Amino acid sequence: MSHQHSENPIEAVLDLPIRYIDRSRAYYLTLGYDNPYRWAHNRDVPFAPLSRPLTHCRVGLITTAAPFKPEAGDQGPWAPYNASAKFTGVYCMPIEPAPDLRISHVGYDRKHTSAEDINTYFPLQRLKEAAAAGRIGQLNSRFYAVPSLRSQRLTTERDAPAILEMCREDRIDAAILVAT
């Protein structure tokens, strides 16, 4: 399917993709860092093919969403960025009862995205439906969360190994990471 561009020059400019990488590099330079932001690059991709069909796998859900903290201010749909709602260490929680998770602590396009539907950033209900329909094997009884601290070092040296260990404890065959 081809994308149709508007004949109106103003609309055409507004229809351009956001140059996120360029904006991030410029942002880090304006903060006073001596060098531009370096995106993570892995020569050895840490993924492996499934050893059996997904319909026979135990599936885990990994998120960057944070548990609702009543004392942390507005965290609801359309909430402005809220650093008070951040979490700084990995955690896991049972999927029953369904947790109250929010994403006001991360940067996203709040002009066009509301965060009203939790399944857009934490698709627990959709995964339950997939398991009930037999599209995936068993959904794990707990989910995992990793903070979004913008630190490659913390992510690779601390957070990812902790999440991997939890997944191994639960005998997860496949994990779905929904990063916000």
In one word, what is the shape?
globular
Low-confidence stretches: none
- State the helix count: 4
| Average predicted local confidence, pLDDT | 87
Taking the alpha carbons of the first and last residues, their distance comes to 27 Å
- Beta-strand portion reads 5-15%
Strand segment count:
7
Largest sheet: 5 strands, mixed
Q: Helix/strand-derived class?
A: alpha/beta
* Helix-strand topology string: HHEEEEHEEHE
What Rg do the Cα atoms give? 19 Å
Please estimate the helix content. 10-25%
Number of domains: 2
Write a structural description.
By secondary structure, this protein is α/β, with parallel strands linked by helices. The protein folds into two domains: 1-39, no CATH class; 54-178, no CATH class. The protein contains four helices and seven strands. Strands 1, 3, 5, 6 and 7 form a five-stranded mixed beta sheet that branches. The protein has a two-stranded antiparallel ribbon with strand order 2-4. The longest helix has 18 residues, at 152-169. The radius of gyration is 19 Å and the shape is globular. It starts with 8 loop residues before the first helix and ends with a strand. The model has no long low-confidence stretch (mean pLDDT 87).
Quick recap:
With 180 residues, the chain is of the alpha/beta class. It has helices at 9-14, 20-30, 124-132, 152-169, and strands at residues 58-63, 66-67, 91-94, 101-102, 138-139, 142-145, 174-178.
